[in-house]
Amino acid sequence: MSAITRDEVAHLARLSRLALADEELDHFAAQLDVIIGAVARVAEVAADDIPPSSHALPLTNVYRPDEVRPCLTPEQALSGAPAVEDGRFRVPRILGEEA
Amino acid sequence: MSLIHKSAADLGALIASGEVSAVEVAQAHLDRIAAVEPQVNAFLHVDTETTLEQARVVDARRAAGEDLGPLAGVPIAHKDIFTTVDMPTTAGSKILEGWRPPYDATVTRRLRAAGLVILGKTNLDEFAMGSSTENSAYGTTHNPWDLSRIPGGSSGGSSAAVAAYEAPLSTGTDTGGSIRQPAAVTGIVGMKPTYGGSSRYGLIAFASSLDTPGPFARNVMDAALLHEAFSGHDVMDSTSVDAPVPSVVEAARNAEVAGLRIGVVKEFGGDGYQPGVLARFHETVELLESLGAKVFEVSCPSFDVALPAYYLIAPSECSSNLARFDAMRYGLRVGDDGTRSAEEVMSLTRAQGFGPEVKRRIILGTYALSSGYYDAYYGQAQKVRTLIARDFESAFQQVDVLISPTTPTTAFPIGERADDPLAMYLADLCTIPANLAGNAAISVPCGLADEDGLPVGLQIMAPVLGDDRCYRVGAAVERALEARWGGSLLSKAPAL
Q1: Is the dihedral of CA B406, B354, B421, B147 positive or negative?
Q2: For residue B261, what are the contacts with CB-CB under 8 A and spacing of at least 6?
Q3: Is a pLDDT exceeding 70 seen at residue B333?
Q4: Are B395 and B300 in contact (CB under 8 A)?
Q5: Is residue B140 within 8 Å of residue B107, measured between CB atoms?
Q6: N or C: which end of chain A has fewer CB within 10 A?
Q7: Which phi and psi (to 5°) does residue B112 adopt?
């Protein structure tokens, strides 16, 4: 098992949309390295013939009847939004200036 | 005996008979909360008027001749991870500070339907990630036995509220032990039902394949009454089990272990366990034998790798679940000054809104799920899950229930493990296998450790949908130990 580097943590933070400070990167890199070293033990036990279980229960798709029923009003759905405009969620720009 | 010291069952009966009103019972608990909260900090939100109004409604329904259930009018403290329309829901995080959900969780809805009076929302480790309630963004909760120690976690606010007589009942969620471990270290009863036996709808998700709502109480019967009140199939949760809830109240009343086969898990109880914890555990094993149970040692070899598997699976699911906190539709938004893109706003908001434990798990989960590492970490952990389920299956061919200490140590001092995640994760060593396989498991008090005088928990694990067995054995242990102690373990706690 490979060790986790500070650069890898920075990359993972970008993927996770977490703007971490330099000192956080240092702190997490050291801690994650220790944690990953400890959890790597899982590789020692499970052989190829063991099927993975994603869940405690056997899962099947659950369908409900396709019928109209009450749901949240627009006001309720928008009630926790950080910004609202014209009955919609107002969000920062998604495309870059050049788009 | 004052109202706050009575059991939930007794309070329900007193209210039903008209000897006291639901309003009087609620007021007694609100007074207690006002008196001890400065020391305990179990609650994130208490709303006196909303609480009393709920109690008035119960009294009015009773006066109108309605036949209400056994817990109608009984107060309850509700973990702040269940959505509630009339109170804020924060999951212990700054990212949801002040958020008022537009809908009730199924557990909340069922509490209301059963006439329970919600006193407020209890403190927790942020998004239920932790074993000490030190990861709450709103300050740590203190253990009523010793205010310098942790109340367990993540449902530490809920366990402390019940142990401090602020509420006779509370709700928790158990992802890796977050009900059983706090119950053990605060000297109360905590039950993790079978996965899917209680609905996750409206429970803010941490690790969806593990999260399980369950009850806290000061005795086994009260826990059973609450378990029955909010469990059962829910069409709003696709992982909800469509099977009847086992009659856990009947099992708690039965409390008979003669002839029962009990397995002691060989892998739990060696190095790293506090001597006082082991001493109380071994005494309880002897007690069960004296009550007519047949005790065997059972080996579950894969339990040794449950902890590492859990710390790959739970962060993986958390990194996916917490992606919804994107600063767009609800919660905190940081840096939206017109010059930044949505992606920049998301990154700044999440960096400011999440605490260190949540960030650590998101990064660990993102790593475990990433291309190149997926097979070595997440894939292997899912295989361990299969092995653990097989261990349980094989064990339950030999015995009816499995027992172990609930935790390797008693409550540790606040701050002691804060900078050492691996040491913190050990608190859930014995509880995690039941989460990975979905089994039912309960923690009941079994004495005080000699070296520090703090509570020790006995864990009883039963097969999937065998929740009633946990209550049956738990009630038998409770009955025998309380006869020996001359009262409950909690009655030995120092007064606050």
Answers
A1: negative
A2: B293, B294, B296, B398, B399, B400, B401
A3: yes
A4: yes
A5: no
A6: C
A7: -65, -45
B125, B81 contact by CB (below 8 A)? no
Restricting to A residues 39-98, those with a Cβ less than 8 Å away from any Cβ of B are 39-46, 50-57, 59, 61-62, 64, 72, 76-77, 79-83, 89, 91-94, 96
Beta strands in B93-241 (DSSP E): 117-122, 169-174, 189-192, 212-217
* Count of Cβ atoms closer than 10 Å to residue B415 Cβ: 12
pTM over 0.90: yes
Cβ separation of A96 and B381 shorter than 8 Å?
Answer: no
pLDDT for res A2: 58
Assess contact for B139 and B163: CB atoms under 8 A: no
Q: How far apart are CA B392 and CA B464, in angstroms?
A: 10
**Confidence at residue A99, expressed as pLDDT on a 0 to 100 scale:** 46
Whether residues A80 and B331 touch (CB distance < 8 A) is answered with: yes
Decide if B107 contacts B75 (C-beta within 8 A).
Answer: no
Which of left, alpha, beta for B149 (phi over 0: left; psi -120 to 50: alpha)? beta
What are B216's two structure tokens? 């806290």
CA distance linking residue B315 with residue B318, whole number of Å: 5
At A36 the three-state DSSP class reads helix
DSSP percent split of chain B into helix, strand, coil, nearest 5: 45, 15, 40
CA distance B36 to B30: 10
Distance of CA B117 to the CA centre of its chain: 19
C-alpha distance from B10 to closest chain A C-alpha (Å):
36
Q: Percent of chain B beyond pLDDT 70?
A: 100
Residue appearing with tokens 């699976």: B313
- The token duo for B368 is 């475990």
Q: Tally the C-alpha atoms within 13 A of residue B455's C-alpha that lie toward its C-beta.
A: 36
Contact A97, B344 (CB under 8 A): no
Cβ-Cβ contacts under 8 Å, A32 against chain B: 360, 363-364, 367
Do you know the residue count of chain B? 496
> With 70 as the cut, is the pLDDT of residue B393 above it?
yes
pLDDT band at B138 (very low <50, low <70, confident <90, very high): very high
CA distance A96 to B173: 42
The residue type found at B60 is A
Nearest CA in chain B to A89: B329
- At A46 the pLDDT is 64
Positive or negative CA dihedral for B365, B366, B367, B368?
positive
Q: Nearest Cβ partner of B305 from A35, A45, A62?
A: A45
CA distance B400 to B360: 39
Mean pLDDT of B130-148: 98
Residues B216-229: tens digit of each pLDDT = 999 999 999 999 99
